[in-house]
UniProtKB/TrEMBL annotation:
<dbReference type="InterPro" id="IPR030395">
    <property type="entry name" value="GP_PDE_dom"/>
</dbReference>
<dbReference type="GO" id="GO:0006629">
    <property type="term" value="P:lipid metabolic process"/>
</dbReference>
<dbReference type="GO" id="GO:0008081">
    <property type="term" value="F:phosphoric diester hydrolase activity"/>
</dbReference>
<feature type="domain" description="GP-PDE">
    <location>
        <begin position="3"/>
        <end position="262"/>
    </location>
</feature>
<protein>
    <submittedName>
        <fullName>Glycerophosphoryl diester phosphodiesterase</fullName>
    </submittedName>
</protein>
<dbReference type="Pfam" id="PF03009">
    <property type="entry name" value="GDPD"/>
</dbReference>
<dbReference type="InterPro" id="IPR017946">
    <property type="entry name" value="PLC-like_Pdiesterase_TIM-brl"/>
</dbReference>
Length: 265
């Protein structure tokens, strides 16, 4: 089975990460799923921002958790990216639209996903954060509103929650036991190297660097019942490695190129 292609922060090699335009492009490029990071604004909105601050990915400054949604919405989240559009018409039609530059809320992104049956959304909660467990509580509540918190089965679920925080994964498992979860890994620990997961998560989430150094890990994790979600896979040789190892999901900034590599293999 070929790995499913998950667009990491959207088609982020071609559009500014975490903008609606990046996710729309990823779907146009045939991505099987989308990946986002979520944080809470000061007034309790889940927004798709990777970093603790907006300094890198906007024309503003400040910590996400200290800014209201209105304040976050005043910023340009695309000017830093520097990538050129696919054609000159887009300079006029999309560059200054909200889809291209505006802050993206999880509510908006979920709205995009539910309109595309069969597409999955991988939602990473960031930790440590000012609001702690409130992030997962807000996430589960929102998924209930969209009818996505209690799927018929984990395989059928349109949403997967993931985090590097074992506690965060456990919280979601407690409050939404039917929702599939991914324990993300920066590196192996004595408890995870053999393929087991400390949190009882469904999927394991190693980096591509980890699989280059220890390709046997995918099989060991599978023996424990944990398919692999690997991040972030852009180079053709890494895509091919994941295919050979039997990785279930590959997160990539280049969904179109990754699909082409898999098709050629």
């Amino acid at each position: 089975m070929q790995p499913a292609v998950v667009a990491h922060r959207g088609a982020s090699a071609h559009r500014a990460e975490h903008t609606l335009a990046a996710y729309a492009l990823a779907l146009d490029q045939g991505a099987d799923g989308l990946e986002c990071d979520v944080r809470l604004s000061r007034d309790g909105h889940l927004v798709c921002v990777h970093d603790r601050t907006v300094d890198r990915t906007s024309n503003g400054r400040g910590v996400v958790s200290t800014l209201t949604l209105a304040e976050l919405s005043e910023l340009d989240y695309a000017g830093w990216h520097g990538g050129l559009p696919d054609n000159a018409d887009e300079l006029i039609t999309t560059r200054n639209s909200h889809n291209e530059i505006g802050v993206l809320t999880l509510d908006e992104l979920l709205g995009l996903v539910v309109e595309r049956p069969g597409k999955k959304l991988f939602i990473e909660t960031k930790h440590p954060v000012r609001y702690g467990a409130l992030v997962e509580a807000k996430l589960v509540a929102m998924l209930h509103r969209f009818g996505l918190a209690t799927p018929k089965s984990k395989e059928d679920s349109q949403v997967l929650m993931m985090s590097f925080s074992v506690r965060a994964v456990r919280r979601v498992r407690q409050h939404a036991p039917g929702l599939p979860t991914v324990e993300l890994l920066h590196d192996f620990s004595p408890t995870t190297r053999d393929g087991a997961l400390s949190s009882g998560a469904d999927y394991t989430g190693p980096s591509i660097r980890m699989l280059r150094n220890d390709p046997g890990y995918v099989a060991r994790a599978a023996a424990h019942g944990h398919p692999t979600y690997c991040w972030t896979v852009d180079k053709p040789e890494d895509v091919e490695l994941c295919r050979r190892l039997g990785v279930r999901y590959v997160a990539t900034n280049r969904p179109a190129a990754t699909r082409e590599t898999l098709a050629a293999g």
